[in-house]
């Protein structure tokens, strides 16, 4: 199963890099960060952390989510949305959603 994580982001430079780096790649094949007209370095930091960045100039959560869905690869089986600020432990969330039995280190 190919799961893709979509992260709508507006001015999340302070947290997006860590979030992308902490995604469990055994459960998530790709991370798409949708830059929702940020005025900071959100897009650059997300790209440097390993995400594919999609630009959505129309502000709003719905517009960002739609841009993320539109950017899904054709072979994606599952799309998962996560807020850039909400979970500080995406490894735990992904393990719960996908039933991964991989032993993951506890968050710091």
Structure description:
The protein has 108 residues and is α/β, with parallel strands linked by helices. It has a single domain (3-84), classed as Alpha-Beta Complex (Spore Coat Polysaccharide Biosynthesis Protein SpsA, Chain A). 34% of the residues lie in helices and 19% in strands. The chain is built from 4 helices and 4 strands. A 4-stranded parallel beta sheet has the order 3-2-1-4, sandwiched between helices. The longest helix is centred in the first third of the chain and has 10 residues, at 13-22. The radius of gyration is 13 Å and the shape is globular. Residues 94-105 have low confidence and may be disordered.
Count up the domains: 1
Please list the strands of the largest sheet in the order they lie side by side.
3-2-1-4
Total beta strands = 4
Number of distinct helices:
4
What structural class do helix, strand and pairing data support?
alpha/beta
Specify the CATH architecture. Alpha-Beta Complex
CATH superfamily annotation: Spore Coat Polysaccharide Biosynthesis Protein SpsA, Chain A
Q: What's the rounded overall pLDDT mean?
A: 85
Distance between the termini: 29 Å
Q: What is the class in the CATH system?
A: Alpha Beta
Report the principal-axis shape: globular
Computed Rg: 13 Å
Might you state the CATH topology name?
Spore Coat Polysaccharide Biosynthesis Protein SpsA, Chain A
Poorly predicted runs: 94-105
Main pleated-sheet profile: 4 strands, parallel
- SSE ordering: EHEHEHEH
